[in-house]
Amino acid sequence: MITIVIGADHHGFVCKEYIKQQLTMLSQPIAWYDVGARNDEHSDYPIFAHQVAHAIVHGKAEFGVLLCGTGEGMAITANRHKGIYAALAWNEEVAQLSRQHDHANVLVLPADYISADQAVVMIRAWLQAVPLSDEHKRRIAMIDQV
Fold this sequence. Notes:
Strand order of the largest sheet: 2-1-3-5-4
Number of strands: 5
Largest sheet: 5 strands, parallel
Number of helices: 6
Helix content: 40-55%
Structural class: alpha/beta
Order of helices and strands: EHEHEHEHEHH
């Protein structure tokens, strides 16, 4: 079983709930660890980005998914955490490449600009992608030098 921590602000709440219902298994079952939001009332995205990053850094989940209006704030916040590689994706190919090339362990989705069905397709492609080695690992090491 794979554990994925998921978080969304009020913009991404409905999409987050849909994702958990629709995406329950790939090659192995998925356990969703939901850090919120719990409804679609106004909420602050940094709270959820920090919680998702914290869960991954502390081994409570292998991967994370974040949703907010544009995805930008979530990505910026999550990437403040050492060991987090959060990538903003807006289509299936970008989601897949973020994992293959950049070893992204958090996928960030712009809930105001994609459908819930598109989100499911992107998450599936991202999770099934295999991180590439050699030059891509070298580049990740270069990122970590900062």
